[in-house]
Every structure is written in structure tokens, then in C-alpha cells.
């Protein structure tokens, strides 16, 4: 079992659906820990390794970064996995994936932010306090 944080890119592009749904707006209504779905798009004309990210309401919110998509797509085919929304920070969305069963654990920063919001307060934003998982050879790309 292992977990990692994935960046969600393309959040400011409109979706191709009839309503031109807004990806950023959908991310704003996602709650930390809410399930999200990853879908491989092998017929994507720009990237055959593309992995799209969809909210629990079925609205596309972006894509897994091109650097991570080949590895994530392969592992999704081979292993049981679960994915949850982690955070929206500036122009990037983040999801947390866990391979091998179980639900991904959110980093403490997100859980602390969630606790502050449940008390009706916004947690102070500290851009230096949010660190996605470090690059490592075990995750490839």
C-alpha cells in the first residue's frame, strides 16, 4: 500500500459539455476527503496517457499532470485504488490517491483547515506550509 498527492492541472479550462461547466467552481465546492474519480483517456488527441479527474458529482475538474499520468494510469489498471479531493491552492488542485486498498489519509494541514472551517473560521493561508509528496524514483515519471 502506498499513497501520494497528485496535482490537478487545467482547472481554468472550460469543460466540453453543453453547459461549459466550470472546473474551478466545481473544485471550490469539493470538500477535503470527498471521493473523486480518475478516468484514463487513451483516445485523448493530445496525450494518450491522459488521466481525467472528476468530482463526486461527475463534473470534470482537470487532469493529472502529464508527468504523473503514465505511471498513475498503469497502476490504476493493475491495482485497487481510492482517490479523494485534498485541496485547492491557488491555480492548482490536489487529490490524494491510495493504492492497495483503503481510503487515503489527508495530510495534517488539510485536516486542520477542515476543522477550522467546521468552526466557521477560515484557516490562515500559508503557501509555504503545503508540500505535495516529494519526487522519488519509486513513483517514476
TrEMBL record:
The keyword Metal-binding applies. Residues 122-133 have a biased composition (Low complexity). Residues 117-141 are annotated as: Disordered. Residues 30-79 form the HIRAN domain. Keywords: Hydrolase, Metal-binding. Pfam families: HIRAN. InterPro entries: HIRAN. This is HIRAN domain-containing protein. It comes from Sphingomonas albertensis. The lineage of its organism: Bacteria, Pseudomonadati, Pseudomonadota, Alphaproteobacteria, Sphingomonadales.
Amino acid at each position: 500500500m502506498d499513497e501520494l498527492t497528485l496535482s490537478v492541472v487545467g482547472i481554468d479550462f472550460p469543460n466540453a459539455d453543453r453547459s461549459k461547466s466550470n472546473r474551478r467552481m466545481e473544485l471550490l465546492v469539493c470538500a477535503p476527503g470527498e471521493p473523486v474519480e480518475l478516468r484514463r483517456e487513451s483516445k485523448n488527441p493530445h496525450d494518450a496517457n491522459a488521466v481525467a479527474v472528476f468530482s463526486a458529482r461527475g463534473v470534470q475538474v482537470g487532469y493529472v499532470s502529464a508527468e504523473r499520468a503514465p505511471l498513475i494510469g498503469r497502476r490504476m489498471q493493475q491495482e485497487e485504488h481510492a482517490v479523494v479531493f485534498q485541496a485547492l491552492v491557488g491555480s492548482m488542485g490536489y487529490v490524494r490517491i491510495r493504492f492497495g486498498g483503503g481510503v487515503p489519509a489527508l495530510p495534517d494541514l488539510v485536516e486542520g483547515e477542515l476543522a477550522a472551517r467546521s468552526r466557521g473560521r477560515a484557516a490562515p493561508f500559508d503557501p509555504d506550509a503545503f508540500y505535495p509528496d516529494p519526487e522519488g524514483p519509486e513513483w517514476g515519471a
